Amino acid sequence: MDSNLPPENNPPPFNTPPPPPAFTKPPPVISPVPAPRPARKGTGWKIFAFIVLALLVVSMLINFQQLMGNVTSVKGGTYHSYRSYGPKMEEVTIRDNDADNKIAVIDVEGIITGQAIDQGGFSMVSVVKEQLRRARRDNHVKAVILRVNSPGGEVLASDEIAKAISEFQTKANKPVVVSMGSLAASGGYYVSAPCDWIVANELTITGSIGVIMHGFNYRALMDKVGVRPEVYKSGKFKDMLSGSKSPEEIDPEERKMVQALIDETFERFKTVVAEGRNAAYNAHKGKALDADWKDYADGRILSGNEAYRLGFVDELGDLETAIKRTKDLAHIGKENANLIQYQPVFELSNLFRLFGKSEAKSVKLDLGIDIPKLNAGYLYFISPTYLH
To answer: Which residues lie below 8 Å from residue 113, measured CB to CB, with a gap of 6+?
Structure first.
């Protein structure tokens, strides 16, 4: 090595390693950008539409099947209906005694009304009539137990049920035995009176034989807030029973006509009691009506014991007592009998009624008292225990 040469011209020593290569940054890796996926169209509405369509088809098939099932025969060009009164029913066994004989149990529960009690638009009257019709058609049904737990209700609805029971006993020749629950008063007793036998518990509240028309006169309240009614009517008595009339405006003749209507309906009640109890006594030798029973037909409520003493019921006991008596009257004897009920079947067509039914909006005024839901101007066979 020549020390006189500049450093850049001097070769490196023999043992000196070569300098490392200069670091170069690698080029960036460029990933291909994926193509955007096409937006998926929603399928939820298709599924919903398919379900609705399927339900509609099933509903149409069910309705068609019911229509064909309602027609049993054609005689002389006349279609005879299989289902003529109320909803479609299915038989349910509530006590299986492994027997061929049956006893149908029909419930009269709550306020007796002719208004619709379910979404199918059927009333208590139509349901009871349909149950009686089914019991009449079934030869294995030997009798009916009417379980009554009701304070009464509308006059017309009670009368229709009572007539249906009388017709069933006459045409089917099958006994109807009443098993009274906690309350079988007024209209509850009205529907019981035509039956072949009445069983009540000692503590059952019954009786209350009478008629009531309930209403409110709010004229004093209107006068207090400065509201005066303006009434235009076609006849003298067109605004009878109006709650906006002052006591001085109520014509005595109007009171007389309303009372006459009450008295006429009351006489009908007593006739149903007398005819029903006398027929039951003559046929089955139960408890005869007391000679002064009409003195107790003044609206008062009676215990089961009092009702038995007066002949309003035939026997004291419970449901088991009623079952035993029913077997005797139906001549089943020591044979067993299954207890059955006819219960309404849910129909898919009723579901669609819910969509078209509008619910009326109302404002509830709390007056601190529980006002019974009685319709103004209606006649009721109803117990005063329900009104107070």
So the answer is: 123, 124, 153, 154, 157
Q: How many CA atoms lie within 13 A of 202 on its CB side?
A: 0
Alpha helices (H) along the chain: 44-70, 124-137, 155-172, 187-190, 219-225, 252-284, 304-310, 319-329, 348-356, 384-387
Which residues participate in catalysis according to the annotation?
186, 238
Q: pLDDT tens digit string along 117-173?
A: 765 678 899 999 999 999 999 999 999 999 999 999 999 999 999 999 999 999 999
Report CA-CA distances (Å) from 134 to 86, 148, 172: 11, 19, 11
**What whole-number percentage of the chain has pLDDT above 90?**
49
Report which residue type is found at 122.
F
Please say if the pLDDT value at position 42 is more than 80. no
Nearest CA among 273, 134, 124, 136 for reference residue 191: 273
Q: How far apart are CA 93 and CA 268, in angstroms?
A: 37
Structure tokens at 143: 């009798």
Query: Phi and psi of 279, rounded to 5°?
Result: -65, -40
User: How far lies 72's CA from each of 68, 80, 165, 262, in Å?
Assistant: 8, 6, 24, 44
| φ/ψ (deg, to 5) at 353 | -70, -25
Give me the CATH code for the 81-349+372-387 domain, please.
3.90.226.10
Q: Judge whether 118 and 87 are in contact, CB under 8 Å.
A: yes
CA distance 54 to 181: 45
Indicate the pTM of the whole model: 0.73
Residue 115 and residue 131: Cα distance in Å, rounded? 17
367 vs 175: CA distance, rounded Å: 47
